[in-house]
Inverse folding.
């Protein structure tokens, strides 16, 4: 029986969601195949691990999605789930990811970068031509530090909020018509979902993601849209060098789709987007856990 250590927690702002993901994996893993154990990443002692085990990474955010744990495990020849260090780091760094997408003809909303010691250049035509913006930390998850801004005079305040989480900030054109997500599992795109966020939140922020009962996650039924989302998702996933599983998030402005980001360790509770997409695709929660582990061995 294969020993599986599910790591979670850490010091990230997403540690509570990480604990929920890990708990779901632990309770639902196929114990006829795997012997599971839960360990907080801060308690993980690399020198006690053997090369016979596999680590299921359920650490969201810093430490789990930024390539740090992937490098540590790879350096010690320990098997783990999901993408490797280079891909995780690339997806975590939104500026690098945006640049890669533009270079590879992957559609993504127009943006500007405000570095640590820079001031915003409001004379730039970008700020005059765009109706509304998303202001984001360059590296963070679960929408922490993200603001939606329609008045350019409020951009400075939004930048200050984003800088709580990251020195560098991205200001991105807001696509306001629809939001979608596509899970990728073992080389195949899962059924796409449309995310209809709680209107009271203004966008799909932390509250809308994890606490609101008004947010809806519905299957995309338009076949042409579904195929286009899956096609772009696979391209984005593999151009970033990702492996085994992950989730590609999209927005739509009425004319074109745009990739927001690739999540290399997306939420994994039974009600999270990735397991829900898998369920709609005919893969139950336990089977999903098994698929991810077996593809990583």
């Amino acid at each position: 029986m294969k020993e599986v250590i599910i790591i979670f927690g850490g010091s990230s702002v997403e540690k509570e969601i990480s604990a929920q993901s890990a708990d779901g994996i632990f309770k639902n893993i196929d114990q006829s195949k795997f012997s599971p154990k839960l360990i907080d990443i801060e308690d993980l002692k690399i020198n006690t691990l053997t090369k016979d085990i596999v680590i299921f990474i359920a650490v969201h955010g810093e430490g789990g999605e930024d390539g740090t744990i992937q490098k540590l495990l790879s350096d010690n020849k320990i098997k783990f789930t999901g993408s490797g260090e280079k891909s995780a780091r690339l997806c975590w760094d939104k500026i690098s990811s945006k640049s890669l997408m533009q270079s590879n003809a992957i559609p993504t909303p127009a943006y500007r970068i405000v570095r640590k010691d820079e001031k915003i250049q409001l004379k730039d035509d970008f700020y005059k031509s765009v109706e509304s913006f998303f202001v984001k930390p360059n590296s963070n998850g679960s929408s922490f530090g993200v603001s939606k801004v329609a008045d350019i005079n409020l951009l400075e305040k939004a930048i200050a909020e984003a800088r709580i989480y990251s020195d560098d900030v991205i200001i991105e054109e807001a696509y306001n018509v629809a939001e979608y997500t596509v899970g990728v599992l073992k080389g195949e795109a899962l059924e796409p979902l449309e995310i209809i966020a709680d209107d009271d939140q203004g966008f799909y922020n932390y509250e809308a993601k994890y606490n609101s009962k008004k947010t809806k996650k519905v299957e995309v039924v338009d076949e042409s849209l579904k195929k286009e989302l899956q096609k772009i998702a696979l391209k984005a996933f593999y151009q970033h060098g990702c492996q085994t599983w992950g989730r590609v998030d999209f927005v739509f402005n009425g004319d074109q789709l745009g990739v927001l980001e690739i999540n290399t360790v997306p939420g994994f509770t039974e009600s999270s987007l990735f397991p829900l997409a898998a369920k709609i695709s005919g893969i139950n929660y336990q089977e999903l856990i098994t698929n991810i582990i077996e593809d990583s061995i």
Observations:
- The domain at 2-81 is CATH 3.40.50.20 (Rossmann fold).
